[in-house]
Specification:
152 residues, Hypothetical Protein Yqey, Chain: A, domain1, Arc Repressor Mutant, subunit A, 74% helix
Length: 152
């Protein structure tokens, strides 16, 4: 099996072995969290996750970290916030290249035009078109805010 056909789950497992050998404690810990989340979802749903489902899971993990950072910062827990901030790039390493703000704006404009959205009542239509394009490549919360601003 060549690198190009390696599934995302297998790539993560291989990276775990590499992190163990290199004694990279933080990276190893985050990879174990990722694998545990994948395993949990597979056991709960009695399926084997494909790459798209793993990407959705990773995207959710990044969002959880961002939410935690915000909460920890408000509570003055910089120590916990720093841990979460250090985990995000490790998780994002498995996500596709992040989109620029200009690329996101362009996709939003295309989705609005395609859906014929007239105002906030059409927010769901636009999100339905844009979500698959942004999945794992952009912060959905930020994109949602941009869509609201354009539809208002």
């Amino acid at each position: 099996m060549s690198d190009s056909t390696l599934t995302l789950s297998l790539r993560i497992r291989e990276d775990m072995k590499t992190a163990m050998k290199a004694r990279e404690k933080v990276k190893l810990g985050v990879i174990r969290l990722i694998l545990a989340a994948i395993k949990q979802k597979e056991v709960d749903e009695r399926i084997e996750l494909n790459d798209q489902q793993v990407l959705q899971l990773l995207d959710k993990m990044v969002k959880q970290r961002r939410d935690s950072i915000e909460a920890f910062d408000k509570a003055g827990r910089d120590d916990l916030s720093t841990i979460e901030q250090n985990e995000i790039p490790i998780i994002q390493n498995y996500l596709p290249q992040q989109l620029t703000n200009d690329e996101i704006d362009q996709l939003i404009d295309q989705a609005i035009a395609k859906s014929g959205a007239q105002g906030m009542k059409d927010m769901g239509k636009v999100m339905g078109i844009i979500r698959p394009q942004l999945q794992g490549r952009a912060d959905m919360g930020a994109a949602s805010g941009k869509i609201k601003a354009k539809l208002a």
